[in-house]
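User: Please predict the structure of the protein below. I'd like the answer in structure-token form so I can feed it into my own downstream comparison script.

Assistant: Understood. Taking the following sequence of 331 residues as input:
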Amino acid sequence: MIVAAVLLFLAVAVFLRSKAPPEAARLLPESDGIIYIDLKPVHTFFRKDLKPPEHAAEYQQFIDAIGIDPERDLDEAAIALHRMADPSGPNGPVAYSMVLVGKITGKRLNDWLDAHAAARESYAGHTVYSIPSEGRTVRVAQVGYDMVAVSNTPTPEQIHSMLDRHSTAAWPFAGSTLLRQHYHDVPLLSLAWGVGQIGLPLADERGGAINILGFSLPLQADSTIIASVTPALSLGGSLNVKVVEIAPSSAKAASQSDALNMLLIMVRGIAAPLADNAANKGLKELLRTAEVKQERDRVVVTATLDRSLFSGPAESTKSPANSSSVPETSK
């Protein structure tokens, strides 16, 4: 009887964990948007298709100093987006808090942080390093043997929250309000997903319309969006993309759906004359498979990403502005 009860408890625990957000996402603080990327399948299935970027000299020095190559050693990245009250401030319209997971911790990283920190703080049993970077302060803490927390928000509140959440992260449904409200909408087995106001980094300087590839989408940066990338059931390594916007009303969803369909037709016409190289072929397939439809108060966009889109030419990786800068995704 006791054995059966233990097995039932374990089965329930495994089921709940399978439905829970990844731990890295559960550690994120309260925010306006969340983006999560699982890079382990990319390393396994797509690595041979990816062209490694040519690192700038300063960035290569940073990699050599810490002994970590993010393209090889990073397994997961969870990013919280924080809207800034002053879009013209040091953080621009958006600040970031991140939890990075992989073979990215160790003495060499700790030594680099110690050498470049302008200040240090002990919080919840962890050392928080404050690194000056392009007019901002980037706070970094090694959370565990394979996890690092980073935040460039104006105050330490967000990195403190991540360290506090680490002590309760074993509870499968812990996490921010945004995660609890919308993670159930993320498709199972998604390799990457985003929930909330994830259009913020793509918005114009006034925080208005979202801009992609030079086109202004009929969506606002504060739109609630659930986006995901999942493996396609067919062979060949293609990926299914789904973006859902929750509109204020069914009428608004219908209007935005019509506007997106018109934009899709226009972009298909622009892309049609492009040369049929690998990257353009993948782009044309993406546009060919794209569909926009309305489902009550939601605008649903689906498309297929061909693996040829991942084999573009090598690009340069931006380096830190100076020796005391931390490479980050924000500007």
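That's the full token string. The two ends are 59 Å apart (CA to CA).
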